[in-house]
Amino acid sequence: MLLIFTLISFLISAVLCTCPTGTELGGASGLCYKPFPIRSTWYQGESTCVQNGGHLASERDVFTAAFLVGLADFPFNHTDFWLGGTTNFLGGMWSWPDFTNLTYINWAGGQPNNSLGYCLMQRAGDGKWISVDCTQQKPFICEYPQVQQQTCTCPTTPPCASTQPATQPSQNPCPNNNWVYSNNDDFSKCYYFNTSAINWNDSLVACQNLYNGATLVTIHSSAENDLITNVFRSKYPIPTASDSYYYWIWIGLRLIDPVNVVYQWVDNTALDYTNWGDNSPSGYTCVHFDPTLQDNGPYGQWIDAYCDYTDIGFTSNLGFICELQL
Ligand SMILES: *[C@@H]1O[C@H](CO)[C@@H](O)[C@H](O)[C@H]1NC(C)=O
Ligand SMILES: *[C@@H]1O[C@H](CO)[C@@H](O)[C@H](O)[C@H]1NC(C)=O
Ligand SMILES: *[C@@H]1O[C@H](CO)[C@@H](O)[C@H](O)[C@H]1NC(C)=O
Ligand SMILES: *[C@@H]1O[C@H](CO)[C@@H](O)[C@H](O)[C@H]1NC(C)=O
Ligand SMILES: *[C@@H]1O[C@H](CO)[C@@H](O)[C@H](O)[C@H]1NC(C)=O
């Protein structure tokens, strides 16, 4: 009787962790995985995973590698697929989406290419890793932490955090993991993305208050413009054309001389690169960035317009990107 009572109270107080519906537990990692047989860029894949509380899968040991290759084989019909490795988050150095180094290594011969814009593809046949352009279209596997079962009645039990061993600290030198680090020949900076809708002035103040020395982002090369576009598109769901203005984001460029239509970065650095969209600049005061626009040109064009969209009847304002020079 006592034994049964003890057993029952143990069951009641046990943390009941389980994989989210539709995902499969990978024994070695303690994480949950789901293959998505939809050909997508790495950025779209990561965005899909993030929308559901996960990331593209990380492979930290040979058992997880074998498990994922097996999991993908049938749904992907022996097609190569994306994992979460990328050079984009640590500026030309490979990391998983949580900024940690690749510790277990499974590159094919001659790999990888460390250029920005390369992502980690797993070959279907032998499971070897190949670095390929992140904009290629491939199926992908998302990884999710286990969740606490709805039926659990014990508020004092710890949450079902990932049971994955913390093998190494994050490599991110930024103030915290809300910032993305990038370092290459052109720039060494941390970027902070926020889609809260505020006006340009308030965005500048928000950046300055976020961390000593931080400001609204300044962009000095096409590599930097691409990086910001791509990271934004991997962090946030890709909107449909009709709601794309929700994804316009302030950058630190504004008009300082209306007569001669001169724009200047908030940190007074040179305007040595521009990526104006059609009809811009036309003398409006504040500049935003469009990570979605592709109809009239590439992603990430700059548009000069109002400094506060509520002034012209919009119900919401824009998000913003801050930078911190290291
Ligand atoms: C899988 O690929 C093979 C070879 O390309 C093809 O013949 C077959 O129809 C594909 N099966 C499915 C379910 O897509
Ligand atoms: C991660 O990789 C970088 C570059 O190879 C190296 O400098 C750093 O020490 C590594 N960090 C860990 C924790 O292994
Ligand atoms: C790596 O990729 C870059 C950019 O596409 C390319 O210029 C370079 O030649 C590649 N390097 C190797 C070794 O393939
Ligand atoms: C985004 O910025 C707004 C306005 O400064 C702030 O209230 C909010 O906490 C920020 N969100 C995150 C996730 O940092
Ligand atoms: C932004 O601040 C400037 C002064 O710093 C002010 O002249 C301007 O009216 C403000 N704009 C908005 C939209 O608040």
Overview of the molecule:
Residues 1-17 form the signal peptide. Residues 28-143, 188-308 form the C-type lectin domain. Keywords: Disulfide bond, Signal. The protein has 326 residues and is an alpha+beta fold. It has five helices and 17 strands. It folds into two domains: 18-144, Mannose-Binding Protein A, Chain A, CATH 3.10.100; 179-325, Roll (Mannose-Binding Protein A, Chain A), CATH 3.10.100. Strand 2 (24-26) and strand 3 (31-40) form a beta hairpin. It binds 2-acetamido-2-deoxy-beta-D-glucopyranose (NAG) (5 copies). One 2-acetamido-2-deoxy-beta-D-glucopyranose is lined by residues 194, 196, 198, 206.
Helix content: 10-25%
Q: CATH fold name of the largest domain, please?
A: Mannose-Binding Protein A, Chain A
Count of DSSP H/I helices:
5
CATH class of the largest domain: Alpha Beta
Total strands: 17
Give the N-to-C terminal Cα separation: 65 Å
Largest sheet: 8 strands, mixed
CATH-defined superfamily of the largest domain: Mannose-Binding Protein A, subunit A
What hetero molecules are in the model? 2-acetamido-2-deoxy-beta-D-glucopyranose
CATH architecture of the largest domain: Roll
- Number of domain modules: 2
Mean pLDDT: 85
Strand content: 25-35%
Return residue spans where pLDDT drops below 50 for at least 5 consecutive residues: 5-13
Radius of gyration: 22 Å
Q: What are the secondary-structure elements, in order, as H or E?
A: HEEEHEHEEEEEEEHEHEEEEE
Query: What coarse outline follows from CA principal-axis ratios?
Result: elongated
Content-based structural category: alpha+beta
